[in-house]
């Protein structure tokens, strides 16, 4: 008989009578190498030398300490899954042998064989286990070869003189691919581009002024599969690069590999040689003029967007600051409702907090980042509902005229934000008519839009004032008379709704503000949108895991939840939250902030969904972008206890999703 290596032998643990000797004889007669073992420690010692599979009787492991064996199995290399053949006396199935479940849990890759059995059956199972083990050895060899290949690739990758990177386009289900991230870059990347630490960075964040051009080059490579060679200046560092790019297969990976060299010195020499043939003075003058014009145009084009980004960030911070303030005032208001003086003071404080919230909404309105709840709106009915409010706001010295013809279609808008915009326009018109006048609100339809015109007979604006009227914080009013955000908020709201906002004014002849909103596909709901249906938001007390990196926000939210009768466990970040979930799997809901370091709320929710598919997650956000496109229930900051209660009740009623 040809002797096999120890890695293909069977280890046998059968302490009763001559079972081990008989099993060894059966296997050796079939041409298989077998080694009897007297105990589990002996099995472990032999396993370290090598084995193909293990045959063990049920009585050999009943009542034995299996932890050392379990540790050995858990520490197997990734290619290894040691096969077991377990000889039982009551059948191998879980329904016939309840203790088999414990054996299966410990041994893992186990085949049950009920005694008595025919020798042919044992030999057949043994050969099957040996074949499975040989496949594992083949996998080990392939892994070793792959490791060697990766080592050679990494050596080439790290030592090659050319810059090299692999980029991955970010998935965009709503339109064309507009951004990519660097997933690999060799050390020469920084040497050739002058940009360090690019792995993990998005191109739109690295070089925002020129990102679209780079995206366009590589998007064509990804979509067509055709490699390209081109030269281009990396404007962020002033480097001229010769580049080649090709798609990494398969296309579903959305990856493009790029290899390049810094040819700045060569390019500069070419430019210098060309400029020798031209008039230096004319070239310098033209370059200076062109640069000044370009900078002026760029400044005008980017000014509003830049300020919009700034205000959006400031709004996010304000929302975080307002959340614990509003929550604490809300709780104190309920506690001291029977004390008239305290209730009055707390109500005043809450009103101030609501005014601050409105200011944040105006900032977001300018930045076009507030969350809108659009639906078909009957503008004539909305203005009719606002008549008393507008009349009291403009005062008795101004005549209000409403021109709303019948039959106008509904407009697509957020009625709450639209009311705020209309009131802003009316208040601006009032301030422009200090001696009284006429304020006209007129509706008409043209080219798929419903247009609302707010027309006053006031002092009007000159061309310079009109040009700056929608800039944030620009105001012609006295200090303390306005924030300078009214018109900018209306302008941002119109753009966000897909409409337009236009101002026309002449000094001494009043101002006309036209707000055009797209026509809705459906009719407006005839029910009173202000009617609030009383709903029973009561539900059982919940065990809630609250996650927020801002301690004040987290503490305030926890108090509101406890005041509702819920049990609250707090975590300051995603990592701590996952640890608490591992320790306690009885939570009913996870309430998490979105903007957190290292792991944001969406990433945390993904981990929770993977480990606890039925556990619902509520994302709380002061993010300036409004509703986040993350497919999760959300609650915007700042919120009051009633808002939090409603969000939890809604989430508790929804079926769990995976």
Automatic annotation (TrEMBL):
The modification 4-aspartylphosphate is found at residue 593. Residues 277-304 form a coiled coil. The keyword Phosphoprotein applies. InterPro entries: CheY-like_superfamily (IPR011006), HATPase_C_sf (IPR036890), HATPase_dom (IPR003594), His_kinase_dom (IPR005467), HisK_dim/P_dom (IPR003661), HisK_dim/P_sf (IPR036097), PAS (IPR000014), PAS-like_dom_sf (IPR035965). Keywords: Coiled coil, Phosphoprotein. Residues 543-652 form the Response regulatory domain. Its EC number is 2.7.13.3. One of its GO terms (molecular function) is phosphorelay sensor kinase activity. CDD domains: HisKA. Pfam families: HATPase_c, HisKA, PAS_4, Response_reg. It catalyses: ATP + protein L-histidine = ADP + protein N-phospho-L-histidine. Residues 313-521 form the Histidine kinase domain. NCBIfam families: sensory_box. This is histidine kinase.
């Amino acid at each position: 008989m040809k002797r096999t290596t120890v890695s293909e032998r069977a280890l046998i643990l059968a302490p009763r009578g001559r079972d081990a000797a008989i099993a060894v004889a059966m296997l050796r007669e079939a041409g298989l190498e077998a080694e009897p073992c007297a105990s589990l420690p002996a099995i472990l010692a032999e396993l370290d030398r090598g084995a193909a599979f293990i045959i063990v009787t049920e009585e050999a492991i009943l009542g034995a300490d299996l932890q050392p064996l379990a540790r050995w199995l858990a520490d197997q290399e990734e290619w290894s899954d040691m096969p077991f053949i377990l000889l039982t006396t009551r059948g191998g199935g879980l329904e016939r042998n309840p203790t088999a479940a414990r054996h299966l849990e410990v041994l893992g890759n186990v085949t049950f064989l009920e005694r008595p059995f025919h020798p042919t059956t044992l030999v057949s199972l043994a050969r099957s286990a040996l074949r499975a083990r040989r496949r594992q050895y083949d996998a080990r060899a392939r892994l070793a070869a792959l490791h060697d290949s990766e080592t050679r690739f990494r050596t080439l990758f790290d030592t090659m003189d050319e810059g090299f990177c692999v980029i991955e386009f970010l998935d965009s289900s709503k339109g064309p691919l507009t951004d990519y991230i660097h997933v690999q870059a060799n050390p020469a990347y920084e040497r050739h581009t002058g940009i360090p630490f690019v792995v993990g960075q998005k191109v739109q964040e690295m070089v925002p002024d020129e990102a679209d051009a780079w995206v366009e080059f590589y998007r064509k490579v990804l979509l067509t599969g055709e490699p390209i060679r081109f030269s281009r200046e990396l404007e962020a560092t002033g480097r001229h690069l010769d580049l080649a790019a090709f798609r990494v297969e398969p296309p579903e990976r959305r990856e493009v590999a790029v290899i390049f060299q810094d040819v700045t010195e060569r390019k500069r020499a070419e430019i210098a040689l060309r400029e020798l043939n031209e008039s230096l003075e004319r070239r310098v003058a033209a370059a200076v003029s062109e640069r000044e014009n370009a900078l002026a145009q760029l400044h005008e084009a980017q000014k509003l967007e830049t300020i919009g980004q700034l205000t959006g960030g400031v709004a996010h911070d304000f929302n975080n600051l307002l959340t614990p303030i509003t929550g604490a005032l809300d709780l104190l208001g309920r506690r001291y409702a029977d004390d008239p003086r305290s209730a009055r003071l707390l109500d005043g404080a809450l009103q101030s907090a609501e005014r601050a919230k409105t200011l944040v909404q105006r900032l977001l309105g300018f930045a076009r980042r507030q969350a809108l709840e659009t639906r078909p709106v009957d503008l004539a009915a909305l203005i009719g509902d606002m008549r008393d409010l507008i009349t009291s706001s403009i005062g008795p010295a101004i005549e209000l005229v409403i021109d709303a013809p019948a039959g106008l279609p509904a407009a697509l808008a957020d009625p709450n934000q639209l009311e705020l915009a209309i009131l802003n326009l009316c208040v601006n018109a009032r301030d422009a008519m200090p001696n009284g006048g006429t304020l006209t609100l007129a509706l008409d339809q043209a080219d798929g839009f419903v247009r609302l015109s707010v027309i006053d007979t006031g002092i009007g604006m000159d061309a310079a004032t009109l040009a700056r009227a929608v800039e944030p914080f620009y105001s012609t009013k006295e200090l303390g008379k306005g924030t300078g955000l009214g018109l900018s908020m209306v302008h941002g709201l119109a753009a966000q709704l897909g409409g337009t906002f236009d101002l026309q004014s002449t000094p001494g002849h009043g101002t006309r503000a036209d707000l055009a909103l797209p026509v809705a596909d459906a009719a407006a709901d005839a029910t009173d949108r202000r009617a609030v249906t009383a709903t029973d938001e009561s539900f059982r007390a919940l065990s809630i895991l609250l996650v927020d990196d801002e301690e004040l926000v987290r503490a305030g939210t926890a108090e509101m939840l406890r005041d509702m009768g819920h049990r609250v466990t707090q975590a300051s970040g995603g990592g701590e939250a996952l640890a608490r979930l591992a320790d306690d799997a009885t939570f009913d809901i996870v309430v998490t902030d979105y903007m957190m370091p290292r792991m944001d709320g969406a990433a945390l929710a993904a981990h929770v969904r993977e480990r606890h598919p039925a556990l619902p997650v509520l994302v709380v956000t002061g993010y300036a972008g409004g509703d986040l496109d993350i497919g999760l229930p959300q609650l915007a900051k700042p919120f009051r206890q009633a808002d939090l209660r409603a969000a939890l009740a809604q989430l508790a009623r929804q079926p769990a999703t995976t």
